[in-house]
Amino acid sequence: MTDRRRINGPPEGTTPLEFLTGFTHQSVIKRSPTTLRKIFLKTSLTPPATGSAFLELPTPSSPSTPTLKLTASVYGPRPLPSATAFSPNARLTAELKFSPFSTPGRRRGYIRDGVERDLSAQLSLALVKSVDVGKYPKSAIDVFVSVLDCEGGLGDPGDGKGGGGVEVGLMGVLAAAISCASAAIADAGIECFDLVAGGVAGAMLERDGDVEVGRVGEGGDSGGARPRGEHARKVTLVLDPSPAGDYVILAAAAVGYMAAKDELTLVWTKGSMSPSSDGTEETERLIDGAIRAAIGVRLVINEAIKERWLLGLNEIGLIKEKGVGGDGDTAMD
Amino acid sequence: MSRHKNIRNLDPYAEELDDFDGGEFNDVSESDERQLEEGLVQVRGALEGTGVSVTDKEIKESLWHYYFDVGKTVNYVLSHHAPAKKPKKKPQSQFTQKVPKGTSGVSSSSSSYMAHEHICALPKTNLLGYFSGIGQGHGFETRTATELGFFRDCPWGNIPEHRRGKIVVESICPQGGLPGGSGKGSKLAALAKARKEKAAAEKMQDGEEKASVSLLARLASKTPAQAPTSISKPLLPPTTQEDKQDTKQKTKQVIIPEPQPEVEPKTAAASSQGLGHPEEPQIFFPILNDKSIYMPQFTSLLGSPSSFAVSFFGERISTIKMNTTNHGTFTISGAPTAAQAKAFSEPSPDDIVIAAQSGSKGLTNAKKKIDKPVEKIEAAVQAMAIDNTPIKARREIDVLDEFRNTKTKENANFVVIGHVDAGKSTLMGRLLYECGVVDERTIQKFKAEAEKIGKSSFHFAWVLDQTNEERSRGVTMDIATNHFSTASTNFTILDAPGHRDFVPNMIAGASQADFAVLVLDASTGAFESGFQNNGQTREHTILARAIGVSRIVVAVNKLDAVNWNHDRYTEISQQMGHFLSNAGFSSNSTSFVPCSGLTGANIFHGARDKLPWYHGPTLIQTLESSKPRSRAINSPLRITINDVFRGGIQNPVSISGRIEAGSLQIGDALLTLPSKESATVKGIEINEQGSEWAVAGHNVTLHLSGINIIHLKPGDVMCSPDSPIVPLNCFNLKILSFETITPMLVGIHRGRLNASGRVISLLESMDKATGKTLKKKPRHIGPGMFARVKVEVTLSAGIPVEKGNRVVLRLGGKTVAAGVVE
Hints:
The longest helix of chain A has 36 residues, at 280-315. Helices cover 21% and strands 23% of the residues of chain A. Chain A has 333 residues and is an alpha+beta fold. In chain A, strand 8 and strand 9 form a beta hairpin. By secondary structure, chain B is an alpha+beta fold. Chain B folds into 6 domains: 3-89, no CATH class; 97-271, no CATH class; 349-388, no CATH class; 410-625, P-loop containing nucleotide triphosphate hydrolases (Rossmann fold, 3-Layer(aba) Sandwich); 638-719, Translation factors (Elongation Factor Tu (Ef-tu), domain 3, Beta Barrel), CATH 2.40.30.10; 730-821, Translation factors (Elongation Factor Tu (Ef-tu), domain 3), CATH 2.40.30.10. In chain B, the strands form 5 sheets. A 6-stranded mixed sheet of chain B has the order 4-5-3-6-7-8, sandwiched between helices. A 6-stranded antiparallel barrel of chain B has the order 9-10-16-13-12-17. A 6-stranded antiparallel beta barrel of chain B has the order 18-22-20-19-23-24. In chain B, helix 22 (503-510) runs parallel beside helix 24 (536-547). The interface between A and B is large, with 113 and 105 residues. Chain A: Keywords: Cytoplasm, Exosome, Nucleus, RNA-binding, rRNA processing. Chain A: Residues 36-191 form the Exoribonuclease phosphorolytic domain. Chain A: One of its GO terms (cellular component) is nucleolus. Chain A: InterPro entries: ExoRNase_PH_dom1, PNPase/RNase_PH_dom_sf, Ribosomal_Su5_D2-typ_SF, RNase_PH.
């Protein structure tokens, strides 16, 4: 302790300090478990594509906070490559790609990895049921979804919170990709039976008062009691769970849902519920919840397509510039 | 315990500075000492009159701390050495400052949590944590958890779940300290801390009580329900414990379960806190104990774009204001792109070409208008609409008057029927040859070709059998239509197939005929085989009668094969005469002609040398005398379509068929059934000659416009739109049965039209002669009986038949009944 003017290190050395990568927890929007996050969805973004759409979950607080942003573009129906065999139906392919900068904390490689391949396959499954492929023989419809930003929770090593439970980030990405791609297909004018909306629901482990005492904000203290041993775990259904949320998701389900036809095009569940029962009831509750989330998303898609349609009518002069009012109907005769 | 560990475990303010107090000023150099003394004087001067009591040592310390900055030191001293405060307390942990004992009422767990919260924002040196209740020495009086009785009732092994501790890993918060592990914060951080403390000190001056709870007060104003005092006062742990827990700020917290009695009130307090936010009832996730799922709030789901999105879409964000209150499902399957929607705003290239073509042929009056470019488009649009308007203006001919005054030859259609190989086609080929329709060269060519495949006697038949299959098999398969004319009449031959597999085609031909020519094979055994139960001589005759052919010419053919035997001819005539009268042909509408198709005897020219015993007319003369007597030209128009074809570029849609009733002229509008499309007559051909009009009995070719060819098929009926036929799905038939009839599936034939149907009920059987009811609702109807049955059409919406139409019911290749629609 001779030189107090300088900051000396300890004689034996220390481990380097660790800093938090970001304050994602700080910006979680407060909402009830049955409230969906708001969605911004707009079509006709990519000029060369036949149809396209952009979807994002807005973040009100800080613009640097990662949120879900993705674009979908649809090319087609266009002729199949000459090398391929004859197909009486349109062949729909879907490809989902994470941008290298999209994942928080870690840059992704450009090369398609297993996660992307898996999501692409699921996306194409979810979409193909809605498209009237019989109307377009010998054609290809290609859907490309590009994830520009996501909230994490992708199941990467080191990305997890380590608190147990399942990661819902991929589910959220897939559900949003389904909704966005469906809007893009509608934007392309491809005949569909229905629009597909994606929805996610999760079962949240509830540790009594400790469910959500996470950092609520600067200086705030919910004053919750200390977590204690519980005889029975309470489980609450939460719609549209955020991977940035500070809670433990025991199990989650993502669905692709066609609201008008009341048909599921995709179901993806993961996690485990209670070890005692077979989990049928819980799974059904989860899927029901996901469908409810999808119904909500569907309304957003409807609005986006309605807006696109009015824009199209406006372009060809069927409606006047300011003629859109009232109930949103057009001035067509 | 090594010195490092000591250092690491030190509390930066509580302990290190205590050490510092221990007189390490001795190391200060001379110049520093001088500067300190000067600063001390200045500070003292500045503090004059403020009433702050502070020792020189403390001032020096502050000066040292602020690098001899007098101003800062004064501020510091003023803020931290309020009259009531002991200077020694200054560097203590903020928590003891902000959560003084008297008011700090939070329970141990919540206060520990709070401790964590705030330490996060402070320079943090202690990476290792204190364990709650387990002392780590350093002069603090500590008691272990065991001493405190934590594990009093706990077994050594098999610790129950509710007694186990939970390890909560707290994420590491960034801290203000610089890397390197020094216990002290950076100067900047110290400055920040000083400012904070100054603010706190100013509040303290307002009043001890208020200042002491400054932080908590702020908290409480946000969340009043959390007012700590009332909650946890009875739960306060021992004071020493509290100090420990207040100051603990850890990367790991081991939370030891409290003994059971203490837990209960705490839980209540906690849950009341968790749910007790009056202003923010929806903060995060309230505990939902019921399993119901609430529907999401849809109304607010439309998000606003981020700045990122705004940069993407630009002004489009607000191009069209959507009314978001209308959330009804929007049922458009695909939004039209602008290009697609524009695609039909002007006539297609095809329409323009068609319009130009029709204009160039003078078929449209719109041609004169096509001068200016604007009018050109208008004309093109009008050309699209021309489809439904007459190409030529209707000339309003009084067809009936014209027909009466016409001097052209009469028309007659006849169908040639008879057993297979009776020589029908050969006879007709001969007829055509003799009438000069087919020239000698063609016959010679056919003869050579027929000899080549060993069918030399078939060369006349080849005039009518034109397809390869018909020629190689030597049988007629479909109706062949040919025309020839005599001095008085234009004849249309409908050469029907004799083979039993093609009886439906024969029905189609017979339905177009005015009368029938029944060809009989006179050679030994052949006539009999054709006349037996399954012979087509018999079936064709009955069918022709049932279809409505009332006149019949019996040509006894192949007499050359029986050496022109008169007896044979007489025998056949008698047998047939008897049969025909039984079948319903009156004797005066029946005539017999002996002939030979192959040799040409008694067809065009008489053959006195071979048939010395015959004095009657030749075949041609008989045909001329068999002209139809009356035609239903006053009835509404009915045409059964025999064939639909493309009559060339000018006439994309043409039909052929017989006008069964009524009359028509160019420009007439027609209605097709069952497709219910309208069409306009563009041109009429009778016997391949153009005509302005046509009446019942004519076999015509009509060129149509304004209709797509897909709406027409053989068997459809064209009628006038004024008096259309209503397609029937279920109707009553008065039938003559040929087989036993029970409720069964049948094929319904009417000309080219055939449909699958079903006899659904037998209404009554009737007496043949008087027509009186013999039995109501019979179980079955035997062969050869009159009956009334109800027939239903299956597999289609209905067939265009009306009262008086004659239909044939067939099943499995046999004709089971013939009847009239009632």
